[in-house]
Amino acid sequence: xxxxxxxxxxxxxxxxxxxxxxxxxxxxxxxxxxxxxxxxxxxxxxxxxxxxxxxxxxxxxxxxxxxxxxxxxxxxxxxxxxxxxxxxxxxxxxxxxxxxxxxxxxxxxxxxxxxxxxxxxxxxxxxxxxxxxxxxxxxxxxxxxxxx
Amino acid sequence: xxxxxxxxxxxxxxxxxxxxxxxxxxxxxxxxxxxxxxxxxxxxxxxxxxxxxxxxxxxxxxxxxxxxxxxxxxxxxxxxxxxxxxxxxxxxxxxxxxxxxxxxxxxxxxxxxxxxxxxxxxxxxxxxxxxxxxxxxxxxxxxxxxxxxxxxxxxxxxxxxxxxxxxxxxxxxxxxxxxxxxxxxxxxxxxxxxxxxxxxxxxxxxxxxxxxxxxxxxxxxxxxxxxxxxxxxxxxxxxxxxxxxxxx
Lengths: 148, 248
Prior knowledge:
- The complex is a heterodimer.
- Helix content of chain A is 66%, strand content 0%.
- Chain A is mostly helical.
- Residues 1-6 and 141-148 of chain A have low confidence and may be disordered.
- Chain B has eleven helices and two strands, in the order αααααααββαααα.
- Chain B is globular.
- In chain B, strand 1 and strand 2 (169-170) form a beta hairpin.
- The mean pLDDT of chain B is 93.
- Helices cover 52% and strands 2% of the residues of chain B.
- Chain B is mostly helical.
- In chain B, helix 2 (18-32) crosses helix 7 (114-137), helix 2 packs antiparallel against helix 10 and helix 3 (40-53) packs across helix 5.
- A two-stranded antiparallel sheet of chain B has the order 1-2.
C-alpha cells in the first residue's frame, strides 16, 4: 500500500510491532510509545515518550497520546457491544485485514462473510476504495473553506 | 471551572489544544453526575473499579488462560457494585478482545438491562481513555470526581435499529441520531455503538473528535491542527487496536 508521504507502507509492521518497517515517518518511535503505554514498564514508557518528543515534538506526543486514548476507548466499545464491521467497510478492507492478520482475532466472528458475489464485490471495492479515499481527502470540508 | 483550570495547567506546557481540555473536562465532569440509567455514585464506583482492574491478579490469570471463563475467583479491590458488574468492568478493561454476548446475557439474567449495560460500558471506557491519555503523556491521572446527588433521567430512545450487535443502536431515522452524527459522512456501527444511551454517544464523539480526528475529516489525508500526519495517526491507532486484538 502506498502513502502520499513517502514510498510504500508495510501493513504487517503494525501487528509485528516493528514501526521502522512500516514506512511511516518516525514509525519506530510511535510504535514504541504505544507498546510502552499499553504495557507495565514505566521506565520503558518514559524512554519511549522521550523518543517521540525528540522525533515529533511535544505536540506530536499529545497527538499520539490522544490516539492511544481514543482507541483504548473505541476498541472496547465495539468489543463490549458486539457490533459487526459495516458491510461496505468489510468488503473494502478484506485484503488489508488479511495483510494485518486480524482475521484471527476473536471479534472477527461477529462480522458475517458473503458468498462469491460479495467476494467479487470485495475485490472491486478494495481497488476502488484507495482512489475514493484520496479523492475525498483532497476535498476540503466546507467548514474549513468558509473559515479561510 | 476548577477542573478546566487543572487541565489547562497540566496540558498547556505540552501544547495541548483547547478543544482537548474542553472534551476531557466534559467527560470527567459527567462521570460524577447522574446519567441516563446510573446514579452519580454508581458512575464513580464504576470508574474506581475500572482503575482497580489494571493490577487485578485474577484478571492477569484469566488473560493468560486459554478461555476467558476458565478461571474463576474474586477480583481485587472492594467495591459497592455487584460482583457481576465488577466482573464485566474488569473483563472490558483487561481482556476486551475476548468479550462475547455472554457478558450481556449474564448481566441481563441479573436484571441489568441493555441500556444500563451500555452506560456501564461508557463509564468504563471513558475512564480508561483519560487514564491512557495521562499515562502516555506522563502526567498524573485525574482524581475521581465527587458523586453528585440526583436521579438518572431514565429516557430510552424510541427509534432503534438492530445492526447485528448485542444491543440495539439509535436508528439513523431518529432526530437525535441526525444531530449526533450530523458531521459524519456516514454513521458507522462503531460511531453508533453507544447510542442506546445518546448522552454516552455524545461524549464519545466529543472525545474522539478532540483526541483523534473530527468526524467530518475521517476520510481526509491531512487533519488541521495536528502535528502528526494521517499515516502516523493511523499507525498509532492500528498498533493500539492490534495489541487490544480488536478486529473492528
